[in-house]
Write a structure and sequence with these properties.
307 residues; mainly alpha; 14 helices; 5% strand
Length: 307
Amino acid sequence: MRKLTVGLLLFLSFLVTLPCDAWGEDPGNCGKQFAFAESLFAESDFYRAIGEYKRLMFLCPGSAALREKAYFKIGLSYFRAKKWQSAREAFDAFLVNFPDSRMASEALYFKGMSEKSLSLHEEALATFARIIEAETGEDRGRAIYQSALVLVDMERWERAGEMLSRIPEGSTLYDSAGVFSAGLENIGNLPYKSPSVAGTLAAVLPGAGHLYTRRPKDALVSFLLNGLFIWSAVELFDDEKYVTGGIVTFFELGWYSGNIYSAVTSAHKFNKRTKESFLQGLRDRVNLSYLHDADNACNGLMLSMRF
């Protein structure tokens, strides 16, 4: 018992003589841990990077600056990996833990972009509105620009144009906003197909509605199929085979109605493709990228325009 007591006292004395670093985090190791996570992020190995950022947050609770960056980069890693919901949640966590951070505006921006990618339109508009109300300069401009794009996705063309007009002259985004706004003014002049006209043509002549909506193969199939059933029904009635003729007529009514419905649907699909192609052309003409340098705490916009 005496030996056990003496041994315990010696062990406690040894612990007291240990340096403080043995009890807590080592700032040098924390820096190395963060550098390793950053190297994984730079290599686009986002999931391993997230794990290393989380490891740093656990091992280095006292390194406030590194933890702040780690929180942000976790969200950015999810964003770059296109895990929009996880990115949204990570940036929410960042904003809760670091509400006064210099990177709060960037966190809000990427949160809004994640919501935009998730088609959470109202939520994205609300997030971008927080930036518009709190920031100035390019931070505010890019939030206005992305808000306009959300409104375009919602097909609220007039409001989108009004939003783009709020970007001040002299902004990096001013010319881009002008191109987009001018394009939106012409969206009503696109070569749409009338669903009612397509249905009427299909009713008069099966297949004509599909031909009107530029689907010649479907037009040919509809014309031949309905023509065959109509011809068969006429022949059967001429041969006084009324029961069989009635059955064929019953099925033909189904094909005939389907031909009209399909023509109307084809017109809607044609209009949707036309509109989406036009909008994609606008987006391709004006390509906006947002750059963030976490090391130097600076932001940038990269704008490319095609004519």
